[in-house]
């Protein structure tokens, strides 16, 4: 095999990493490099240092250590049966790339994943070596996200947590049965056990160390679900998310619409999900986490979300009797359930109405727009009248164009 | 008409002094013209201190460990000078807002801030109304400034100055608003052990490892023209892009074109967009690869039902392994793992609880959560050695309902208890305990195959198949739930007594 130069390896191993939707560099413990020897800081909110033409944030150097893999997961570009070109970084190469990029302010840190080579332990050990070298040899204080290999030993996972701000294990498919079919070598039960162990470790380290006042361990874990590679409906996917949030205290569940890959597998469905489906799932996920909606209120298992309108509007259309809502008197919970009013807008409404009776223009100023909210709210100078009961209401709220992959 | 003159475009202190004096005099907002330095005309209200401008000066009071906003709040509590009229105070929120808004490039900002200051006299809670037009406008400006600071943190690209020791980096940047000074402490915190400069048309900021200094605006030619790592960065940028998800509008919204000329990666954008469609079509048109036989075989093996129909389990390890793949009911789905019993294979006493809880589910061990700790305490009081007892549950998976970040316990139904009895029976058959103590209604149902009123039957030996004797008692989680402390103490004492009896019978 020809020896690849570093640039070529970078092209292969970042191309191979792009199907992981996770990009967050937020939620790390606040720290900086003052008084240290190296570079790096984390200030709570992560920074997107660039945006690719797909509109996605580039915050971290997201790469695989290697795309050689002994597994054959049908949805994955790196599966053993795929004919893509293979490459492997040395530990040193990843460390140098990370520092070189970081010092030029290209990135917030490193997101390191890998194909599984030889054994889970061997692969995990190599990944941990990268993180260890960055932290201990170079006093790197930027962000590190490590993908955990579920079958790696708990001790290695624990060491990964010592160096990483965030760790993740991808559940990948909403139903364990699909995983058994599409990723036969993966062990769904093993993945859950590894996430359970990680939750316990994160909780064990929740208190900052007494000596340094710092937390010595990763502050959270996340996972990814692939949408559209199996027959799971949105309701099943969200039920799975709700269970995962509750069971493992995840910071985030990422939804990744299954995307065409070079050299796809014959075992995958022919039709690709529209991108808007992924978008609706994120909206529903937000409703569960920040808007007080129960999973069952949004969509029942076995059902899909309405792609034409956002899930909150869909809920409101099913509960027209609860509307219109008077923005000058309704409580916070009710306002949060009103289409077109975001969490921040609701807070501003509550603040503003201690001073004045809000008009439609006022609501527009604090919420940015009232287009969506208008049929559902009453203000000092506006009432929707019969609009909320109108048969055309849904049609009038449907977005004129939808995103689609093809 | 009054003219208020500032030392520089971002001279907050000058604005503050001028605005304070003007409001104290009751000057109406319409009667003030705000101007900066040399555009001097009319009466000279506030002469600038000498020595400003030109040479590099220290950023007074800004330490990199502080936030970019200056912590001093001299507007409030400043002792009034004589003859300045009555003193006044303003909400801290206004000072914060004004300090940010003054960095905006809009020429209106100074007058807008004075207008708000003036209105605050009659409407001290004006800022609490985000719907007010002036407040909304100032807030928009502050948002724009905040965004400009954020984008500066994001889009500055350092270049290595070649052949210089120690390692030195320089960036040329054009911020959307006058935020260079405000954005600088972030870079000092992040690159504390690096020498660096950021040059902009407004001002330049330098860090030498210990001190932030400012100097006047510069020219792009003052920064290095290239850096060898940019080729690697462009390679990364092109490779991480997924052509099947092309969305340039979203990209432009977050990475506005005004920043592109100083971003080394932006030169690639037109070509990446142009070729995205054909790259995607090629991927879709390509014949999919057939999976190997090895993979199909493995898939079949994993897809088979793990219910362990009638096979005979010969030891507890097989039971533990079987529970992990059990599909006899649906509880496995949202549980982390099945939790088998734990204890010596020939224990004389078996204690059966209801089901694992949150902690048991995560650890794979029975009775380690709050109820388990209570049981441990009761066992210790009863003189029971937990190490010699086989502790298990009627149902091996945790039945629960997600509620936000928590899991709420749900009582297993009859069908689930019945399905899981298969595993409990296997444990009973293999351990062959002399005594089985069932805790709570679910365990009673599973052990005796019928419901028994615990309050009436506790303390009485029940006949079980084989040689074993059965006892019933309260489940410790029952004690955690009852609010009445007296009832709680009584139930706990009864549990201890029942444990003592069970231990005695087990010999």
Outline:
The complex is a heterodimer of chains A (406) and B (507). Chain A has 406 residues and is of the alpha/beta class.
Labels describing this entry:
A: 406 residues; alpha/beta; 10 strands; disordered C terminus; B: alpha/beta; 3 domains; six-stranded mixed beta sheet; five-stranded mixed beta sheet; 17 helices; 15 strands; elongated
Number of domains of chain B: 3
Shape of chain A from CA axes? globular
In percent, how helical is the residue content of chain A? 25-40%
- Outline the low-pLDDT stretches of chain B: 39-62, 66-85, 302-308
The secondary structure category of chain B is alpha/beta
Average pLDDT taken over every residue of chain B: 87
Give the biggest beta sheet of chain A: 6 strands, parallel
Question: Biggest sheet of chain B, in brief?
Answer: 6 strands, mixed
Strand order of the largest sheet of chain A: 3-4-5-6-7-8
User: Structural class, from secondary structure content of chain A?
Assistant: alpha/beta
| Helix segment tally of chain A | 14
**Strand tally of chain B:** 15
CA-atom Rg of chain A in angstroms: 23 Å
Helix content of chain B: 40-55%
Give a description of the structure.
The complex is a heterodimer of chains A (406) and B (507). Chain A is α/β, with parallel strands linked by helices. Chain A has two domains: 6-214, no CATH class; 322-397, no CATH class. Chain A has 14 helices and ten strands. Chain A is globular, with a radius of gyration of 23 Å. By secondary structure, chain B is an alpha/beta fold. Chain B folds into three domains: 1-224, no CATH class; 229-285, no CATH class; 316-506, Uracil-DNA glycosylase-like domain (Uracil-DNA Glycosylase, subunit E), CATH 3.40.470.10. Chain B is 40% helix and 13% strand. Chain B contains 17 helices and 15 strands. Chain B has a six-stranded mixed sheet with strand order 3-8-7-6-5-4, covered by helices on one side. Chain B has a five-stranded mixed sheet with strand order 10-9-13-15-14, with helices on both faces. In chain B, α13 crosses α14 (440-448). Chain B starts with a strand and ends with a helix. At the A-B interface, α1, β1, β2, α2 and α5 of A face α4, β4, α5, α6 and α7 of B.
């Amino acid at each position: 095999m020809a020896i690849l130069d570093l640039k070529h390896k970078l092209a292969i191993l970042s191309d191979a990493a792009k199907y992981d939707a996770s990009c967050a560099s937020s939620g790390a413990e606040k720290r900086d490099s003052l008084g240290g020897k190296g570079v790096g800081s984390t200030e709570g909110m992560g920074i997107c240092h660039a945006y690719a033409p797909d509109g996605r944030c580039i915050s971290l150097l997201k790469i695989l250590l290697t795309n050689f893999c002994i597994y054959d997961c049908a949805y994955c570009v790196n599966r053993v049966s795929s004919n893509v070109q293979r490459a492997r970084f040395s530990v040193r190469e990843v460390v140098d790339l990370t520092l070189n990029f970081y010092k030029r302010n290209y990135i917030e840190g490193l997101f390191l994943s890998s194909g599984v080579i030889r054994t889970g332990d061997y692969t995990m050990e190599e990944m941990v070596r990268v993180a260890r070298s960055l932290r201990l040899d170079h006093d790197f204080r930027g962000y590190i996200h490590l993908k955990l290999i579920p079958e790696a030993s708990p001790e290695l996972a624990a060491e990964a947590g010592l160096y990483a701000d965030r760790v993740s294990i991808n559940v990948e498919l909403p139903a364990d049965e699909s995983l058994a079919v599409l990723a036969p070598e993966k062990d769904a039960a093993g993945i859950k056990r590894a996430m359970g162990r990680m939750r316990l470790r994160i909780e064990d380290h929740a208190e900052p160390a007494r000596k340094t006042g710092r937390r010595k361990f990763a502050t959270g874990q996340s996972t990814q679900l692939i949408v559209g590679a199996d027959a799971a409906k949105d309701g099943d996917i969200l039920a799975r998310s709700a269970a995962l949030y509750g069971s493992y205290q995840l910071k985030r569940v990422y939804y990744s619409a299954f995307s065409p890959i070079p050299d796809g597998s014959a075992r995958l469905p022919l039709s690709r999900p529209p991108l808007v489906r992924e978008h609706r799932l994120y909206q529903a996920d937000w409703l569960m986490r920040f808007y007080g909606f129960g999973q069952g209120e949004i969509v029942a298992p076995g059902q899909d979300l309405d792609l034409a309108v956002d899930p909150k509007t869909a809920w409101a259309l099913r509960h027209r009797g609860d509307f219109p809502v008077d923005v000058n008197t309704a409580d916070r919970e009710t306002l949060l359930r009103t289409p077109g009013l975001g969490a921040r807008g609701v807070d501003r409404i509550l603040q503003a109405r201690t001073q004045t009776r809000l008009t439609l223009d006022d609501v527009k100023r604090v919420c940015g727009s009232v287009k969506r909210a208008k049929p559902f709210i009453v203000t000092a100078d506006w009432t929707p009248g019969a609009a909320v009961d109108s048969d055309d209401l849904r049609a009038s709220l449907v977005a004129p164009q939808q995103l689609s992959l093809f | 008409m009054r003219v208020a003159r500032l030392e520089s475009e971002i001279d907050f202190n000058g604005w503050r002094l001028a605005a304070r004096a003007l409001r104290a005099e009751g000057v109406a907002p319409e009667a003030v013209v705000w101007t900066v330095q040399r555009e001097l005309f009319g009466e000279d209200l506030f002469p600038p201190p000498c020595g400003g401008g030109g040479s590099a000066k220290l950023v007074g009071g800004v330490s990199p460990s502080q936030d970019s906003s200056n912590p001093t709040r001299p507007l409030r509590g400043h002792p009034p000078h004589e003859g300045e009229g009555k003193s006044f105070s303003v909400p801290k929120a206004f000072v914060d807002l004004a300090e940010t808004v003054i960095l905006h490039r809009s020429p209106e900002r100074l007058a807008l801030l004075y207008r708000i200051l003036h209105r605050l006299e009659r409407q001290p809670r004006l800022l609490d109304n985000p719907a007010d037009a002036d407040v909304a406008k100032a807030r928009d400006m502050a948002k724009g400034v905040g965004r400009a600071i954020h984008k500066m943190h994001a889009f500055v690209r350092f270049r290595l100055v070649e052949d210089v020791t120690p390692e030195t980096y320089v960036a040329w940047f054009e911020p959307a608003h006058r935020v260079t000074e405000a954005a600088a402490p972030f870079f000092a915190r992040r690159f504390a052990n690096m020498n660096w400069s950021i040059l902009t048309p407004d001002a330049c900021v330098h860090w030498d490892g210990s001190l932030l200094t400012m100097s006047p605006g510069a020219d792009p030619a003052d920064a290095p023209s290239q850096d060898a790592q940019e080729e690697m960065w462009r390679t990364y940028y092109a490779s991480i892009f997924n052509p099947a998800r092309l969305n340039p509008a979203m990209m432009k919204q977050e990475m506005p074109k005004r920043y592109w000329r100083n971003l080394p990666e932006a030169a690639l954008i037109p070509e990446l967009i142009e070729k995205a469609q054909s790259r995607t079509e090629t991927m879709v048109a390509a014949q999919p690869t057939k999976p190997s036989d090895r993979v199909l075989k493995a898939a079949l093996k994993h897809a088979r039902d793990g219910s362990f129909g009638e096979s005979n389990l010969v030891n507890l390890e097989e039971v533990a392994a079987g529970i992990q793949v059990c599909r006899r009911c649906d509880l496995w789905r949202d549980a982390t793992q099945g939790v088998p019993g734990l204890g010596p294979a020939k224990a004389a006493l078996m204690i059966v609880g209801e089901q694992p809880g949150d902690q048991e589910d995560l650890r794979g061990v029975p009775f380690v959560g709050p109820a388990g700790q209570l049981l441990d305490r009761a066992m210790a009081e009863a003189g029971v050695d937990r190490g010699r007892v086989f502790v298990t549950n009627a149902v091996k998976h945790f039945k629960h309902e997600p509620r936000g970040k928590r899991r709420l316990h749900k009582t297993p139904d009859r069908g689930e208890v019945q399905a899981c009895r298969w595993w409990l029976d296997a444990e009973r058959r293999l351990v062959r305990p002399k005594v089985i103590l069932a805790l709570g209604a679910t365990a009673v149902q599973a052990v005796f195959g019928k419901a028994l009123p615990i309050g009436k039957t506790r303390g009485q030996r029940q006949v079980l198949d084989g040689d074993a004797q059965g006892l019933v008692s309260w489940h410790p989680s029952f004690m955690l739930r009852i609010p009445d402390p007296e009832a709680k103490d009584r139930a706990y004492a009864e549990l201890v007594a029942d444990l003592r009896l069970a231990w005695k019978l087990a010999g």
